[in-house]
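Thread: Modeling a multi-component assembly for a lab meeting

Hi all, long-time lurker, first post. My supervisor asked me to bring a structural picture of a complex we are working on to next week's group meeting, and I have zero experience with this. I have the sequence lines for every component (775 residues in total). Could someone generate the structure of the whole assembly? Inputs are pasted exactly as I received them:
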Amino acid sequence: MASHVDPRAKALTYLIGSAAIILTLDLVRLAIISGGLAMLLIGTRLRQRWLKVMLALTPTLLLFALVAGWSGGYAAAMGAALRLTALVGAGVVFFGVAPPEGLGDAFLAGGVPSQIMFLLEGALRFTPMMGALAREVYEAQASRGMRFDGVHLLHNGPLLLTPLLLSVMRFADDLAEGLETRGFGSPQRTPLREYRFGWQDGALIGAALLLAIFIVQ
Amino acid sequence: MSPLVICNEVTYQYRDGTPGLHQVSLTIEPGEFVIVAGASGSGKSTLCRLLNGLIPHIHGGNLTGRVLIAGQDVHSTPPYILSRSVGLALQNPEAQSLATTVARDLALGPACQGLDRTTIAARVREVAALLEIEPLLNRQLISLSGGELQRVAIAGVLALHPRLLALDEPFAFLDAAGASRLRETLHMLHQRGVAIIVAEHRLAEVADLATRMIVLHEGRVVADGAPRAVLAHEVQQWGLEAPPLVRLARAAGMDATPLTLDEALEVISPNGSAPLAFPDCAPVTPPVIAWEDVSFAHDNRMVLSQAHLSAAAGEIVGVLGANGAGKTTLLRLGNGLLRPQHGTVRIQGQAIGRRPLWEIARSVGLVVQNPGHMLFAPTVQDELEAGPRALQRLDRAWISHIIDQCHLEPVLRRPPHQLSAGEQRRVAIGAVLASQPSALLLDEPTAGQDARSRQALRALLTDVARAGVAVLIATHDTEWAYALCTRWAVLDAGVIIASGTPSAICAQPALVSQARLRLPAEEAIKQPARPAAEAAGYRMQSMPSRTGAGDAGFSKST
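Re: Modeling a multi-component assembly
Sure thing. I ran the full set together rather than chain by chain. Output:
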C-alpha cells in the first residue's frame, strides 16, 4: 500500500504528524502516540533501525529530559522524553517508507529545481557514508593509542576533527566532480517516475489531519 | 574523420598556483586506446579533467592554449555538454555512486540529459548488459565490492554514450580478479569503437592492450608512441616502473620489450627447475604476534575462520588474498579493533583478551589503508610525537631515529595533509613506529602509490624488520610483496589456505588460482603449464579482437 502513495503525500502526512506531536501537551495522549508508533515499528521491518537510533539517542534523550525537568518539573521531563521518542519514531517510519530518491523525483515532477532536490537527496544518501567515514577516522586514531573513552573524549575529541573534516572536504570535491561527469549541471532533468496525486493520497492526508486535530484539541 | 581531442600548447596552473600541465600538444583520434603514464603529480589526472571540462569549469585556475573536444572549445563549453563526448571515470568510484540502487545510478546521467523515460530505461539495460552487471541492478550501491562499484561507475559514464572514455587510475584499488575483468571490459569497449584513455602508472595492466602511450613528466609530454616503443626507453627517469616482464627481460640481458607472457617466454628461458617443496616456514623463534584458531563473523557471515598465523621479530609476512578475503579483518583482530569470537590473539605470548585498545597500541601499530585518516597534527614533527605522548612513552632520541629511518627530515615542519600520498604513508608509518611497537601491521600500503613510493616503502619496511619489528602486510599486490616478504599467508574466503615462502606458494598454481592472486612475473615464466599461469592472472598473448554480431549495439549508438 505504501508504495502506491505519492511521496509528497507521505511527506505532508509526516509534517502533520510531527506538528501534532510537538503541539500535544497532554502526557497521556503523548504516551498513546509514542506507544502507537512503537507498536507500528515493532510490527514492521523498521524495528531494528528504530532501536539503533533510540540507542544512539539515549544520552541526548536523558539530557533533554533532565533539562526540561530542571525547569518544569517531573511532567515536563516526561513530556520532553515522550515527545522526542515519538518524533524519532515518526521520522524512522517516514524515511523507511519514503526513500530519498522517490521524494526527490516526486518534488522534481512538481517543479522543484533539480539542484535543490539533490541537496535533499544527497543529505539523506550520504549521511550513512559520512557515519562510516567518522568511524574509520576514529578507529585509525584509536589504533595509535588515542583514548576517546570517558573524559578522554573531551580532551582528544578535537583530534578526530582535522582528519574527518579534511576527508569530508575531499569527498565533497570528488562528489562535485562525480556529479559533473554525469552531466548534473544540465538545466533539465527527467524525473524517473511519473507522479500524480490519487484518491489514496488525499485520503491519507485527510486522515492525518483529522487525527491531528482530534489529538491536539 | 576529425580528431576527438586537440590540445594545442596547453598550459594549466591550479588556483593555488600548483603547476598542472606545461605546453602540452596532442591529438587523439576516434578509436585509439591510449595509456597516459606518469608518476604521481605528473599531470595525468589534470589531463583527464581537462578533457571533460572539469578543468577549468570546476577547478578554476589559469588555462592557456587551445583545447577542442569533439570540435567544442573547452573554455566555452560546460562539463554537462562535454560529458556527452567524453566520459570520465574517476579514481574514487564511491564519489561517482550518486544514487541508492545501481539501476537508479545508471539512469541519472541520461535523466540529466533530459531524455525521455523509455530511452533512459533502454540505456540502463544496454550498459548493464554491456558490462554484465544486470544481476546488480536492484542492489544497493553501498553493498557492492570495490570491483563491482568500479564497473557500475564505468557503466554510469557509458550511459551518456560518450565517444571517448577516460579512466583515472582505475586499477589502483582492484585485486587481480577485478583488474582482469576491467582489462576485458576496456578491450571490449575498444573493439566496439569507443576511444579509451587510461591514466595509470601500473603499466603492466594495459600496456599490451593500448595502441599508444603518452608519458607525462612534470606536466610535459616526454614520450608519445606505441607502448612497445615507449617502454624500450628507460622509463625510470620519469618515475615509472617498466612492466615486470620487461624488467625480467632486461635483467636477463635481452634487448626486448615483452608485453605478454608468450613474448617473454620467447626471449627468456625459464630456469626449468622443478616446483619447490611446500614447506611451512613458520618462525622458529617465539612469535611477537600470533592468531590462534581465530574466527570472526559479521552480519551472520563468517569473515575469518579458524585462522592460525604468527610473525616473529624481523619477519615480514605478507597476508595475500583477493578483495573481501578477510585480510583487513585479520589485521583489525591483531590490534584489538575487533575481538575474536573464537580463538585467541597473543602479543608476546599474552592473550589480548579485553585489554583496551590504547594498551595494545603500545605493542602493535596499525597503518590503515588511508593514512590521511590517521594524521591530525599541524606539523609532521607534532604528528610523530602525538602517539608516544598519548601512550606516555615519548623518547626524543627514538623519534630522531624514526625521522632518519623514514626520511622525514625535509617535511618535518610541513602539515601532514599537504604532503603527497607517498609522503603521507611514510609519516603514518613513522607516527606508528614512534610509539615503539614490536609488531607493525599495514593494510594495502601500496594502493594508489606510484613506482617511486612503492620502492621507497619497500626499503623502509626492510629497515624496520631489520630493526627487530615483526611486520605484517595485507596486500593483493603480489609483485611488490614477492620481493619484500619472507613469508606469505594466503587467505581465501576467510580461510588461511597456505603459508610458506613466496616461491613455494607461487609454485602451486591451483592454490594461486583459488586465491585469485596474480603470479609475480618472475614466477609466471617458470610455470610449466601455461593454463595455470593464465589462471593465475597472466595474459599469454594479446587479447584477440572480439568484434562480432552482438557488438553492434553500443558502437551504433555512440
